[in-house]
Every structure is written in C-alpha cells, then in structure tokens.
Write a structure and sequence with these properties.
Elements lengths: L1 H10 L8 H13 L6 H8 L13 H14 L14 H19 L35 E3 L9 E3 H12 L3 E4 L6 H12 L9 H24 L14 H14 L4 E6 L4 H7 L5 H8 L18 E5 L6 E5 L9 H16 L7 E8 H6 L2 H8 L11 E6 L9 H4 L16 E5 L3 H18 L3 E6 L17 H9 L3 H12 L4 H17 L7 E2 L26 H11 L10 H14 L7 H14 L3 E6 L14 E2 L6 E2 L12 E5 L5 H13 L3 E6 L10 H8 L2 H5 L6 E5 L14 H6 L7 E3 L4 H13 L6 E5 L13 H5 L6 E2 L12 E5 L3 H12 L4 E6 L1 E3 L3 H8 L7 E9 L5 H11 L5 E7 L10 H16 L3
Parallel strand pairs: 4-6, 4-7, 7-8, 8-10, 9-10, 12-15, 12-16, 16-17, 17-19, 18-19, 21-22, 21-24, 24-25
Antiparallel strand pairs: 1-2, 3-9, 5-6, 5-11, 13-14, 18-23, 20-22
Helix pairs in contact: 1-5, 2-4, 2-5, 5-6, 8-9, 8-10, 8-18, 8-19, 9-16, 12-23, 20-22, 22-27, 23-24, 29-32
Family: Belongs to the alpha-ketoglutarate dehydrogenase family.
Pfam family, one: OxoGdeHyase_C
Keywords: Oxidoreductase, Thiamine pyrophosphate
C-alpha cells in the first residue's frame, strides 16, 4: 500500500517534476502539528536526517532535495521501506492536501473575475475532485486540512470543497504560490483563507464604498453631459478605483504613512484628481472650456496634469502627490519611485514606512512596455528600493483597440511580468467593490510587512472607446453589445446594499443628487481634503532664477588641500589594487602642488566641497563607483576581503550624505528614477552617468518628455545632471557620440544647460555651480574619455579656487591678436588636437576659442573674448562629429551672431554621415587629421 501512496506523490500532481510541492505541503502540516498527519507519515518525517545538526524546519531546501532523491530512487526506496502497511485513509488524506494545494496554485483560473462574463476559462482538472481520486461519496468524511487557515484542524470534505471554491474561485483570484519565501506564502494564506477571501465590513465602510462609486459614476456622467465628445479617458467600468484609492490612502495613513505618491496614465485620471486628490471641479471645468493661466508656460493636456493636497486619515494627514506624466504610459512609474526615494531620504526613513508609492497601469501597457520590467528589476536593489510599490492595473481588457489576448501578450495574465520579482498578484472583479477593498488592504499590509511590490489586477471594462470620440463597436462588437446592457457598478452595489437592508432607496438617490449639486457648485467634493501642510520641501529659494544668476563659488586653496587630504586618504586596513593605489598616490601629489591636477582629482574635490557644505550628492550609473574609464575611484574595493570604503563619506562630521551606486543595467528606468528624485529634492546634486554617452538614447523618452520640457509643460523644476561620455577616439560608431545634436535641437526657453568642459578646473566649477547657485535646471554634460588622462588637460589648484565656470575660454598661447587671420571656434576634445597641431606647425596666425557652454549660448562672454578679433574675416567652426551631427547645424545661428558683420563662417569636420562614427581606426585617424588640417589651413 505504501508503494501506491509514494506513486501518488510523483504521478498525480499538476506540477511538472513530480509531487515535491504536495509532499512539502504535507511536511509543512507536520511541522505545524506532528499529530496532523498519520503515524506512518510522522515516522517518515521523523527519520529525515538533520542537516549539520540544524532542525529541519529551517532547511526546507534540503528537505525538497530529499524528496527529489526519493523520486529518483523510486517508490520502494529506503524511505518507502521505513514503514509498511499504509492505510487507504492516509492515501485519501494526501489527496485532500493535494486538493488544497491545487486550489492555492490554480484556483484563480476558475475565479469569477470578468464583470462581463466574456472570459472563456479553460477547464482546470486539478480543481476537480476526480483528479485527486476523491468524490462526493467522501463529502461527509472529515480530513485534516493541514495548513489551510480556516481555523479548524479538520473538516468534512464537502465543507472543505465549498470553502476552497469560495476562497479561491470567487471574486478574487490569488496568485502567490510562485513565491519561494514560505513566510510570505503563509502570511497570505492566513489573511486570505481565514475569511475565505470575503471579510465582513461594517455599515460605515459599506456606505463609504457606495459614496466612492457614486462619485466615480457622477463625475463621468457630469463631464459627459457638460462636455460631450471631449476627450476625458473615462473611468467608467473601473469605477471601483475611486473607493479603492481612498481606502488605500486611509489605510496607509492609519499605519503611519505621511506621504503617498501616485503615478498613472490617462484612464480615470480626471476622476482621481477630483474625487481623491480634491482638485476643485470648477478648475477642471475651466480647463475643458479652454480657459488657462497664461503664466503657466506652454502647458499640457488636462489628463497629464499632476496635483498635490493633504488627505485626512485616522493616523493624521497624509500628503498626496499625483505625478505629472506624458503619453508614454508606463514611464511615470520609475519617476514615482525616484520621487518616493527622495522623500524617504529626506525623512531619514530606510524601510519605506513613511512614504507609499502607488502606480496605476493599463493592462496592455504593463505587459507591453519594457520599462515595467526595468522598474520591477530595480525594486529590491540598494540604489532604487522604496520599501515596495502597490501596483494597480486598470484591466479593461482592451489595449487601445486590441482585445485579442494573443495580440497583446504571450501570457495568460497581463500581470505575469510581476512574477519576475515574486510579487503576489490579486486579480479582482471590479463589480465586487467589497472584494476590491479586501485585496487593497491585504496588498498594502503585505507591502508594509515584507517591503516588496504587490500587484492588484482590477478586472473591469471600458464603457466607451479609447477616448470618447472613438467608436468601439467597430473593433469590439460583441464586447460592447454586452457593455451597453451591463449596469454600472454604482447600481450593482446599491442594489446589494438595498437587499442587505444597509441603506434605503431614498438615501441612494440623495447621495447621487448631493454629489451632482456639489459639482454644480464647483467646490471640492472630497471630505478628507485638507490644505497642504505635510509636504516637507520648500522650493521657493529656487524659483525665478536664470542660468546666469550671480553666485559666489570661490573656495580657498587651503580648503581644497584640506578636502584633498581627507578624500585621498583611507584606513590602513583597506588594501588597494596597485593601479588604484597609484591613482591615489598621484592625487596626494596633486593637492600638495607637486603635480598638476587631472580630471578625476578635480571631480572628487568638487564632490567633497559640496558635501562639506552639508548638501547631499546622489550618483548612479552602470560603473559610477570607479568610473567607466577607470578615472574616478570614489568607491575603493579592499583587495583583502572585497569590502568597500568611500572616502567621500568621511569628509567631516555632519557632512552631507554621499551616495554612489553602480546601477542596474538600464538607462530608461534609472534615468527616470533620478529625474523623479531630483524633482522632489532640490537640495541634492543628483547625477546620472551613462556608461558611454551613446547609451543615453535608451532613455530618450525621459529626455524628450521630462528633462527637456517638464518645466515648460508642468512648471516642474529639476536639477538632474547627466554625465555623457563623448569623444572620437576611434572606438566605432557606438562608443563615440552622446548625440550632442539631439540635446541642442531641444534647447529653448533656457530649459537646460549643455556644457562641454575641457579642463579639470572647468568640471570642478561646473559641478559646484550646479549646487551652489539657486537655479535648478537640468545640466547636460558632454563628459570626456581620453581627456581624463590627457597630458594637456590639467589644471592648478588656483584655477579651481577661482570658483567660476567659464562659458568661453579664449586663446591660451601668447599669440598677437593683430596677426591673427583666422579664428577657429570649437568645443571639447578636438581643441587639444588643434592646439597640438598648431604648435607643431608653429602657426601664429590662427586663434583657437573654446565654447564650453553651448546652451544657453553665452553671447556676452563670447563677445568679450572675441573683441580682439574684430578685424578677422575668416572664421571656422571645427568639430569631430559628422556635419549633420554635433553643434554645427543646431548652433550655427549663434556662431553667426558672434562673429563680425560681413565675416565668413565655414565648417571644418567630418562629412555628413548616417552613422555617428566609422568603425575602423585607420579611417578615423585619417578623418581626424584631415579635419584638424582643414581647420588650421588658411586658404
């Protein structure tokens, strides 16, 4: 008989690879209570060997290995022979535990999730009694239920089967058995199974849910009647989102949260603005009517707008922030996470308890847009963790106009992407608002307990087309025939409460009419709304400043030496790699005045001077600790034990925080995160560094939609600095150009600064300027590669101490201006090629001028530098990039305005090219020599 029991282990499971999961379930029941399994099973489990003397319950992985060994040895293995004569009752008991496990694994596939009833669920045999060799004939027989958290040790099979169906196949479909952490699974089981996924709510809660549905429905109907045909991306069908968010915020505040940051795309955004954040409806109506405040800049469509307010909860007021976002649906998610991380850092909170991120996704977008994967991947890393994000999917079963699952994704659920980080996923029928509130509280409690992401899949529908001007019947005729006849969620739930005697018809009608009257009145309709007092950052010192604001950046040489002694020293216990050790020994010589300063030394001194002021620095990038080109070495790696030491964290007692992280291998999500961070923390120098400048194009959405235009569209200031290694060293088309032309093309309204520093002193003062002056706008830096160790690219301590970034640098050699016949203007590394060749040529009739800031173009500074060359008629712009790239086309009008009237301006550089650079070193060298010679040759 035991042989048949063992055979059942390995052959009857729905899981590939045998019954290991089922045996583990039986083993967990044994750990809970050894008496819950039969004597035969106790004997088997008692005889399992201890591992290194450690109790088995702390070594589940070893136990699973033991079970797999049993499988390989076969049913009559040595374990099988440990007992004999197992009874049929034991075999049935195992089958019952298998049945429980089957519902935990696959019950969601039979859950009642689709409000429209259009989902065609495939038959799941694992959920049938017959699959487990059980039948209705066994219904009256009591079985031990193992770890099934129903509050009973045993139940008749009939009662258990009904309970499993209520729990796992009702309005909630729970996916959590993919989680490998037993504690997390047990926690979910206890919360989920103890109430059979349907807790009892008191009258106040139920009435509050109904009020939320009334508001959601009332808002959409009001807008639909007042502004027919206008785009509003209606929430209708997903109305439960409103009571869901309100409950989530209330629950968060009750549990100690002080801030909640929300990111969402268009669907339902206007409803959330008015019914959750408390935006004044009259303001929204004015936006529909075309009225706007002309002082707000270019502006944006109303369903991209953000908003902030405070929200009253039993635990105190919670500050709410709805992030501004563009039409790239999922890109706002890492922005929200970055904003949350900044707020957590400001509050000194390391576990995420005081600030909660909520991201709201579309079903097609969460599965279809790669930034979602990047964001999930970041969620548990040191640099980007925020204590878990509550992710809500408004699953209206249509992606734009596509509803066939095989066209929108390759998995059963749109949320399967979340399994990559073992996030639990709760699918819930949006027409059952009490089930929605249940999973909402469960999700937040899970997030708060385990500091991990959790997903709620709000399965609903879209009552109108993608926008209200679309005709959805053209592409989804069957769905929209069903939707047309389907009652709205408010009506469904009101009828439920009427049937329960919770509320009468008059009260429902009064709720509807009162809400309509409030909208007519135009006042805030959110009872919990409060004026903002909880926000913890003051942006007022940074408002109203332009890039040329006067500031004092000077620093004494003694201070520089003091800082250098701190940051170029390390404990004796830290043994450095020989090459790194030489870098640090050279830096000690530099601050002692024995050597000129190189790039890495000046950059490190800049950071030290900023944290010495008490300011925070945060830098992320794929190799930022040492620097991709082995120049920075801000993070030292002990060759003895692999530990790390960061001298910049030891400048002085009470200094500003210094954080440098080697980031995940992502551009889009990481840059978006850092943008979000910098918009929430103006007191931090936030830096994102590309491994190569070319790689920044992986984050082009962030550059286009946030960095370049965020201030013009939304009035959002941001001081994010991008370090983009750029320069032509013959390394091929993918490691040469940071696409300077793209940044210059987007320059307008003083939206950011584009700089190409060419000396260590310049990078020192550029970095300090970004923090010392009160202006907060993005800084785009074409940072160097070969210049990091170029013999000519050095500076003195005196040049650093001046404290001024020079937007234009004039001639450095002693050339008589009156002899000059040609002036060459340039930026970046090519300057040193020009200077070196001119010196070799012994020319004194060509002057070379460096433009270190290409935007905002420094008209006044360049006029001063070029004053001595008014007589020159031959002017050249020289660049390494192809003619259709670089600064030539985008900045040519600035160059013309800088030279004397009637003068001639020509181009010296590579010919136009579809590729950023050639791939052959020999051709690169030929091109480089030719462009330098062309620039210096007076025709």
């Amino acid at each position: 008989m035991l042989e048949s029991v063992m055979k059942a282990w390995w052959e009857s499971s729905h899981m590939a690879g045998g019954n290991a999961a089922y045996v583990e379930e039986l083993y967990e029941a044994y750990l809970d209570d050894p008496q819950s399994v039969s004597q035969e099973w106790r004997t088997i489990f008692d005889q399992l060997p201890k591992v290194n003397g450690v109790e088995l319950e702390t070594n589940h992985s070893q136990i699973r290995d033991q079970f797999r060994t049993m499988a390989k040895l076969g049913p009559m293995s040595r374990v099988a022979t440990a007992v004999s004569g197992a009874s049929g009752g034991d075999e049935k008991q195992v089958k019952v535990l298998q049945l429980i496990n089957a519902f935990r694994f696959r019950g969601h596939q039979h859950a009642n999730l689709d409000p429209l009833g259009l989902w065609k669920q495939e038959r799941v045999r694992d959920l049938e009694l017959s699959h487990h060799e059980l039948s209705e004939a066994d219904f009256d027989r009591a079985f031990n239920v193992g770890s099934y958290a129903i509050g009973k040790d045993s139940m008749p099979l009939g009662e258990l089967f009904k309970s499993l169906n209520r729990t796992y196949c009702g309005s909630v479909g729970a996916e959590y058995m993919h989680i490998t952490n037993t504690e997390q699974k047990r926690w979910i089981q206890q919360r989920f199974e103890s109430v059979q996924a349907k807790p009892e709510f008191d009258r106040d809660t139920k009435v509050g849910i109904l009020k939320g549905l009334v508001a959601a429905d009332g808002m959409e109907k009001y807008l639909g009647s007042k502004f027919p045909g206008a785009k509003r991306f209606s929430l209708e069908g997903g109305d439960a989102l409103i009571p869901m968010l309100k409950n989530l915020i209330t629950h968060a505040g009750t549990n100690g949260a002080k801030e909640v940051v929300v990111g969402m795309a268009h669907r339902g955004r206007l409803n959330v603005l008015v019914n959750v954040l408390g935006k004044n409806p009259s303001v929204l109506f004015d936006e529909f009517a075309g009225k706007h405040d002309e002082s707000l800049g270019a502006g944006d469509v109303k369903y991209h707008a953000g908003y902030s307010s405070d929200y009253a909860t039993p635990g105190g007021n919670v500050h709410l922030a709805l992030a501004f976002n563009p039409s790239h649906l999922e890109i706002v998610n890492p922005v929200v996470m970055g904003s949350v991380r900044a707020r957590l850092d400001r509050r000194g909170c390391s576990d995420g308890s005081t600030v909660v991120p909520i991201t709201i996704h579309g079903d097609a977008a969460i599965a279809g847009q790669g930034v979602v994967q990047e964001t999930f991947n970041m969620s548990q890393t040191r640099a980007f963790a925020v204590g878990g994000t509550v992710r809500i999917v408004i699953n209206n079963q249509v992606g734009f106009t596509t509803s066939k699952r095989e066209d929108t994704r390759s998995t059963q659920y749109c949320t399967d992407i979340a399994k990559m980080v073992q996030a639990p996923i709760f699918h819930v029928n949006a027409d059952d608002p009490e089930a929605v509130i249940f999973v909402t509280q469960l999700a937040l409690d899970y997030r708060n307990t385990f500091k991990r992401d959790v997903v709620i899949d709000l399965v609903c529908y879209r009552r109108h087309g993608h926008n209200e001007a679309d005709e959805p019947n053209a592409t989804q005729p069957l769905m929209y025939q069903k939707i047309k006849k389907h009652p709205v969620p408010r009506e469904i739930y009101a009828d439920q409460l009427l049937a329960e005697g919770i509320i009468d018809k008059h009260e429902v009608e009064k709720m509807v009419s009162d809400y309509r009257a409030a909208l007519d009145h135009g006042a805030c309709v959110v009872e919990e709304w409060r004026p903002m007092t909880e926000h913890s950052v003051d942006w007022s010192p940074y408002l109203g400043h332009d890039w040329d604001v006067i500031y004092d950046g000077a620093i004494t040489i003694d201070k520089l030496r003091e800082l250098g002694e701190k940051i170029f020293s390390y404990p004796e216990s830290v043994k450095l790699n020989s090459r790194v050790n030489k870098v640090y020994e050279d830096r000690k010589a530099m601050i002692a005045g024995e050597k000129p300063l190189d790039w890495g030394c000046a950059e490190m001194l800049a950071y030290a001077s900023i944290v010495d002021l008490g300011k925070r620095i945060r830098m992320t990038g794929q190799d930022s600790g040492r620097g991709t080109f082995f120049h920075r070495h801000a993070v030292l790696h002990n060759q003895k034990d692999g530990s790390t030491y960061m001298p910049l964290q030891h400048v002085r007692e009470g200094q500003g925080p210094m954080e440098i992280y080697d980031s995940v291998l992502s551009e889009e999500a990481v840059m978006a995160f850092e943008y979000g961070y910098s918009t929430a923390e103006p007191g931090c120098l936030t830096i994102w560094e590309a491994q190569f400048g070319d790689f920044a194009n992986g984050a082009q959405v962030v550059i286009d939609q946030f960095l370049s235009s965020g201030e013009a569209k939304w009035g959002r200031l941001c001081g994010l600095t991008l370090l983009l290694p750029h320069g032509y060293e013959g390394q091929g088309p993918e490691h040469s150009s940071a696409r300077l032309e793209r940044f210059l093309q987007m320059c307008a309204d003083h939206n950011w600064q584009v700089c190409v520093p060419s000396t260590p002193a310049q990078v020192f003062n550029m970095i300090r300027r970004q923090m010392v002056r009160p202006m907060r706008r993005p800084l785009i830096v074409m940072s160097p590669k070969s210049l990091l160790r170029h013999a000519m690219a050095t500076s003195s301590l005196e040049e650093l101490a001046e404290g001024v970034f020079k937007s234009v640098i004039g001639e450095v050699d002693e050339i008589n201006p009156t002899k000059v016949k040609r002036v060459v203007m340039c930026s970046g590394k090519v300057y040193y090629d020009l200077l070196d060749q001119r010196r070799k040529n012994e020319q004194d009739d060509v002057a070379i001028i460096r433009i270190e800031q290409l935007y905002p173009f420094p008209h006044a500074e360049i006029a001063e530098v070029l004053e001595a060359y008014k007589h020159v008629q031959d002017w050249v712009w020289c660049q390494e990039e192809p003619q259709n790239q670089g600064a030539w086309y985008c900045s040519q009008h600035h160059f013309w305005s800088a030279i004397p009237d009637g003068a001639r301006l020509t181009y010296a550089g590579r010919s136009a090219s579809a590729s950023p650079a050639v791939g052959y070193v020999s051709i690169h060298n030929q091109q480089q020599k030719a462009l330098v010679d062309d620039a210096l040759s007076i025709k």
